[in-house]
Amino acid sequence: MDPVTHALSGMVFRQLGFRGKAALFVLVFSAVAPDFDYITRLWGAAAFLKYHRGITHGVVALGVFPLAMGFLFRKSGGFFYNASLSFLGYSSHLLLDLTNQYGTRILAPLDGNRYSLDLTFIIDPYITLGLLLAVLLGKVSRRRPALIAACALLSITFYLGGKYYMQGEARQFLKTKMDAHTYKVYPLPNGFFRWWFVVRSGDEVTTGFVDLFLKKACVHEKYRVHPVDPAAIESKKSRVVQRFLAFAGTPHAEVKRGAGKTVVTWRELSYSFLPGERFVAEVVMDAKGEIIRAEFRM
Hints:
The model has no long low-confidence stretch (mean pLDDT 93). The protein is globular, with a radius of gyration of 22 Å. The protein is an alpha+beta fold. It has a 4-stranded antiparallel sheet with strand order 1-2-3-4. The chain is built from 9 helices and 8 strands. It has 3 domains: 3-123, no CATH class; 169-224; 230-297, no CATH class. It has helices at 3-14, 23-32, 45-51, 59-72, 79-98, 125-140, 145-177, 230-235, 239-247, and strands spanning 182-187, 194-201, 204-211, 216-224, 251-258, 261-268, 280-286, 291-297. This is Metal-dependent hydrolase. InterPro entries: Transcription_regulator (IPR053170), YdjM-like (IPR007404). Keywords: Hydrolase, Membrane, Transmembrane, Transmembrane helix. The chain crosses the membrane at residues 22-43, 55-73, 119-140, 146-166.
């Protein structure tokens, strides 16, 4: 999720009735703190891809950060009280990010793999607006802010539960329309009934979207999976491709040769519905197979 949504979640938790001079700050600050790794964007897209949602989004940070906050604000409400508030805000961030298809290394640094429920897009306006509405209504109705906050949080929980159910329905519907051995379903921006799919059957990968409301599955593009190309193997020596493959859930390599050079383009098919060249790693090699350029585009 975006930092604004996380900040709003901290504000909504404050409305539940937590008191203390530092309560609001501790909750909001802790709710956005994991995204401090955004600073890695200064070192380029490839570095950001490697380090974002890494150690700051893991269980170790979840254990250490609240203790630090509790110590810093021990004179304003007590150590355990502020540590508990910080734990609530920090864990809300990790749980919301876990619903994203972007993936979160929730077990870092113990486990470097990314995990995702694939329920929401990177930005979900329904969750953001729901939290914002709860904050605004809490300001207007000062007598019932806790009830408003509880209703908002419960509504978001039901919303995510609904997304989980619809994702399963989309996968089952897809199986009635396409014969494949691998079915992957991903969220679309602002979508509840519409889902993006990536399915594989033999040496062919198909992408498209399934619409549960209209009861149809539309093919967007088909990719042929060829025997492993030497150029694609060579491209994996690049740090850019290594970081891309550690991130990607459905990677696909395309190799083009000509004019004394070879271009290997790695795509993350779960994001291939986005316009332009997004979530793509490209490696250019000379006639001898030496890598002369490698870049990642988000």
